[in-house]
Amino acid sequence: MKAKKRIAFFVAALAMTAAIAVSSVAFTGCGEPTIVLNGSTSMEKVITALAEAYMEDHDVRITYAATGSGAGVTAAQNGTADIGLASRDLTEEEEATGLVGEAIAVDAVAIIVAEENTTTTNVTAAQLKDIYFNGNENAIEGIESAAGREAGSGTRECFDDKVGIDKEDKYNAETVSEFGSNGEVATSVDTDVKHTKIGYVSLSSVIEGTKAIQFEGVLPSTETIADNTYKLWRNFTLVMNGGVEKLSEAAKGFYDFISTDEGQKIIEEAGAIPMSEFEK
């Protein structure tokens, strides 16, 4: 029986710049074609699950560098990745360079607080803008500070767009700490000793010690995302330079696998809504 191969990725935040340095390791075996994936940290659970399942039955190795959506788009564009990963749609400017994006799933951006925080149960877009942009630590009852993502993050772009913060605007440094991954945001909220920090992460990145709260009176769930009553959601997108026809044979095989019944089930089990379900 073939030993199970696992996808490997390593992420190290660089202090002072909030950039991400990533190195990948090769998998056991030689002569196998390699598929290089690079981008969104929000897509970690979905992509890792898909890659491990695909490698079980195919003689390929897959590397995944969790660098953020912006870096994933750049990697697809300059050819250092077969497929870039973005937790957002491509911009018109990006598409004009020949990049093609294809959404494979829909995911919520969850607003989170510490489990010990029993005061903060619902927030509005106006309140979130007030603490993230205006720096009002009293904007939300039970909240004194906030955690968010770095510029270039697909999660941040979705959050800022729905809350009403312009792309060019910076967060208020007095109330907001910025992090390079969803995991770091969740950990920051969890470890806040006063339990008065708020944050936002991919729904699949809500960790023990934190909980999702209502946004505009609605909790994130498969049902509320699918019927669009929960407004904080975005697409998980594969980014390809020149489209599917430009992919290598190995990468095309992985791309095709994602749309199979097995691939769609894996996406759902990883906490996202596959496009086949969302489009019903």
Describe the structure.
This protein is an alpha/beta fold and 280 residues long. It folds into two domains: 140 residues, D-Maltodextrin-Binding Protein, domain 2, CATH 3.40.190; 120 residues, Periplasmic binding protein-like II (D-Maltodextrin-Binding Protein, domain 2, 3-Layer(aba) Sandwich), CATH 3.40.190. The strands form three sheets. Strands 3, 4, 5, 6, 8, 9, 10, 11, 13 and 14 form a ten-stranded mixed sheet that branches. Strand 8, helix 5 and strand 9 form a beta-alpha-beta unit. Helix 1 runs antiparallel to helix 9. The protein starts with 9 loop residues before the first strand and ends with a helix.
Structural class: alpha/beta
Measured by DSSP, the beta-strand proportion falls in 25-35%
E-strand count: 14
Largest sheet: 10 strands, mixed
Oligomeric composition of the shown chains = single chain
Annotated CATH homologous superfamily of the largest domain: Periplasmic binding protein-like II
CATH topology of the largest domain: D-Maltodextrin-Binding Protein, domain 2
Mean pLDDT across residues = 89
Backbone shape = globular
Low-confidence stretches: 9-29
Distance between the termini: 39 Å
Count of DSSP H/I helices = 10
Order of helices and strands: EEEHEHEHEEHEHEHEEEHEHHEH
Rg for CA atoms: 19 Å
Helical residue percent band: 25-40%
CATH class group of the largest domain: Alpha Beta
Give the tally of structural domains.
2
CATH architecture field of the largest domain: 3-Layer(aba) Sandwich
